[in-house]
Amino acid sequence: MKEEYDWFRISLGGRELKYLLFSLLILLLMLAAALIVGVVLAWLWQMFNPGSVGVRHPGYLGTYFLSVLVIAAFASRLCLALSAVAVDNREIGLRKAFDITSGNTVKIFLGLILSTFPVMVLLLLTGNLAQGIFADSWMGKFVVSALVVFFSALNAVFKSCYLAHIYQYFLYFYNRRPQEESADKSLLD
């Protein structure tokens, strides 16, 4: 993988474009599924609760929120394809990523949540601090904006490290050869 670099020319290669398209496709799949579930839930809610307040009822909102979490959990299995595109592994697509990660939906989703959680807490604290202290100062708003950009970049670093880890983990077991498994079993006997 030897590439020559030209410092004065910026090029968008096929790998970057494929990564962007996969990201947008995963996002669109999540949004379409959430929209369909929302419409069906709203229809069912109005059918079984004709005198209710509507879709702003806490029961409907809670059910919709849980269904969106389930959709996001299943979509998180597709993130393996993003890591594969990043390292130019053309063998792993969205379908194969979904197949490889079967049975690990909750683990992958919770890992993504936990890898993002510390930075999200810092972002919330920064936002609350900005509202309380730097409400009228332009310099304070600038500092808070810089902190938000920094924490967002830190969030991207944590998330990409986690995605690299799951890529390495799943491809190790996916590419494992049968003779390696028999050798491991003989060592355990």
Key attributes of the depicted protein:
189 residues, mainly alpha, 7 helices, 0% strand, flat
How does this model look, in words?
By secondary structure, the chain is an all-alpha fold. The protein has helices spanning 14-48, 58-76, 79-86, 94-100, 105-132, 138-174, 178-188. Helix 1 (14-48) runs antiparallel to helix 3, helix 3 crosses helix 6 (138-174) and helix 5 (105-132) runs antiparallel to helix 6 (138-174). The radius of gyration is 22 Å and the shape is flat.
Task: Describe the structure concisely.
The protein contains seven helices and no strands. With 189 residues, it is an all-alpha fold.
Overall spatial form: flat
What percent strand? under 5%
Low-confidence stretches: none
Number of strands: 0
Instruction: Write the element-wise H/E pattern from the N-terminal end onward.
Output: HHHHHHH
Report helical residue fraction: over 70%
Radius of gyration: 22 Å
Counting DSSP H or I runs of 4 or more residues, the number of helices is: 7
Distance between the termini: 42 Å
The overall average pLDDT, rounded, is 82
Overall structural class, as computed from helix and strand content, comes to mainly alpha
Query: Major sheet: size, sense and barrel closure?
Result: none
